[in-house]
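Changelog-linked ticket: N-acetyl-L-glutamyl 5-phosphate example.
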Amino acid sequence: MNRDWIATARTLSEALPFMQRYTGAIVVVKFGGNAMGDDAEMAAFARDIVLMRQVGVNPVVVHGGGPMINDMLKRLNIESKFVRGKRVTDQATVEVVEMVLTGLVNKRIVQAIMDEGGRAVGLSGKDDDLMVCEPDDPELGFVGRPIEMNVQVLRDLFTAGIIPVVAPVATGTEVTETYNVNGDTAAGAIAGALKADRLLLLTDVQGVKGPDGEVVTELSPDDVRKLTAEGVIAGGMIPKTETALKAIEEGVRAVVIIDGRVSNACLLELFTEHGSGSMIRS
Ligand code: X2W
């Protein structure tokens, strides 16, 4: 007998308790623009999501697309800058953000999931008023902070066996308003409103590093606060850990910051004992 097949059968058998644990669980996956990669990597991500659904998990994909927005703004000669990790978004910029995120990026992910035999529907925070925002900070223009979530549409899609793919663009309380929402913030708000079992933040670093530079595999919210006060958690990791703390406060059971460039990162996290990256939970 081919050894690879024996190993495959054993892997499947070992995954059984994990699959049982996650049956019916809601897992929100934030798929950042930097984690997306080429078509083969996109297909591999989509396959993991379809497998989750196949074994009874309810996955929700919330995507970013910062690098793709940058490319399009450059082609249109629109200048763009970031303040505290968020894009300063004027009227011209918010139009490009909406086109790129709800158009190009959202449909690429939907298509990749369909190609792997899943069923996916793409939507933004505007659809069914999923995410209603107010201005985050006057300095940032049309950057939104979620103030009201209506997640019934996501539950309806779960019931129908459909994987929701959400672009972080939202509506405001005034008609015709459009807000650009940081992808991590949107994923955290959706996970919080769903009281998800897991929020997986897929990024391009291995996880949260401790004082010795090694990735810390398990942290409590207090550990996160301590490492942040000490300056060990810094830079681009801060919005992620802040999202994690807020999501946990809202009832998410655990948040995992993982390297989306690792093959089968989501499966490794959910269905094996190894896990990967850093898990934050109370
Ligand atoms: C982000 C939305 C996309 C995003 C932006 O305009 O780039 C804000 O900064 P990544 O790939 O996850 O970084 N919005 C307000 O978050 O993309």
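Closing comment: Example verified and attached. Residues 32-34, 64-66, 69, 86-87, 97, 143, 168, 180-183 surround N-acetyl-L-glutamyl 5-phosphate (CB under 6 Å). The chain has a mean pLDDT of 94.
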